[in-house]
Amino acid sequence: MRQSHDIAVDIGGMPILLRTQDPSFRQLLARRYEGFVDATSAPRFTFDVNLVTPTPEMESEEGVRVEMRNGEWHLHRGDFRAQWNPRAGQGSIRQSANPYSIDSVLRIVHTLILAKEGGFLLHAASAIRRGRAVLFSGVSGAGKTTISRLAPREATLLTDEVSYVRRVREEYQACGTPFAGELARVGENCSAPISTLYLLAKGPENKVESVSAADAVGCLLRNILFFAEDAELVKLVFRSACEFVDRVPVRRLTFVPDQRVWDLIR
Amino acid sequence: MTERYIARSTAIAARMLGGEMMVMSAVDSTFFTLNEVATAIWQAADGHTPLSEIVARNICAQFDVEPEVARRDADQFVDALAQHGILLVSDHPLENPPVEAA
Known about the structure:
Strand content of chain A: 35-45%
Largest sheet of chain A: 7 strands, mixed
Strand order of the largest sheet of chain A: 1-2-3-7-6-5-4
Number of helices of chain B: 3
Number of strands of chain A: 15
CATH class of the largest domain in chain A: Alpha Beta
CATH architecture of the largest domain in chain A: 3-Layer(aba) Sandwich
Order of helices and strands of chain A: EEHEEEEEHEEHEEEEEHHE
Strand content of chain B: 25-35%
Distance between the termini of chain A: 57 Å
CATH architecture of chain B: Alpha-Beta Complex
CATH topology of the largest domain in chain A: Rossmann fold
Radius of gyration of chain B: 13 Å
Order of helices and strands of chain B: EEEEHEHHE
Largest interface: A-B, 16 and 15 residues
Oligomer: heterodimer
Helix content of chain B: 25-40%
Structural class of chain B: alpha+beta
Shape of chain A: globular
Helix content of chain A: 10-25%
Distance between the termini of chain B: 28 Å
Number of domains of chain A: 2
Shape of chain B: globular
């Protein structure tokens, strides 16, 4: 019998156990998810990671596909195949020994878990300041990494790329993630209630403007990470976006890239 | 003119927020924000009220608009939403239309 080498990766208070038979891959994961490795909490889900030798097909540019069949989610991309049974709490991943494939699988799994619980992953930087989290959302180039770089020293950076938004009763919390953008810096593994979501735009001056509910929901939907072609999940994500906008102030933040922009952040 | 009957699809999610009606297709994830007139048509789309009656009762009587203009705009709106499967359109009343809550 071969020995397994387990590691629990806890993102957003959701420990997921990854089970591999390769000790060096476990070490690679421990480095990749440093700060998010949890040896104490009981994992909610377990994935067996089956490592294979890379093939030319695995380097294809095939886009991600996520489908529910017979109670199991099937996740496909050129570089990985995964399946996951949420009821059983079990899944498996077939990939080569690289951290990028498993990163993608974890992101997808978290989007599916969060969708059922009223939360989502969002293309956004986030940081905690004075005990409250602020989110800065926008497409690539909108300024997520720039505003993260400009953050004052007392701010705790949760991510400069993918924010984890969790609903806890009537409140929304932002949690740190290991999903980094250009800053290439893993976020802090902590959380705080969200005070404001800023929709980012670069411009000639620093200003904060109000946004209509419809614009806020539309922008949010464009920036929520969502992979599954599943009508019921689309409805859940729409509902989550509307309820978030109903409870959390959303503003448009236009900024020039210097530190004074943080004076506008409440 | 042939009469048209319209009903809201169940393959959508809709919500009124901040005084604006938002509709999203669960099939292709298209997102629409409806203005006041479009919201009035949307909310009256029960499958058995003719579109002409909806326009007369819910648009012309409520908004300052000429009947021909209102009907033309309503037809365009209905066609646009029907293309995305958000509204079901028929030339006869829809029996037990699969109405989603407005």
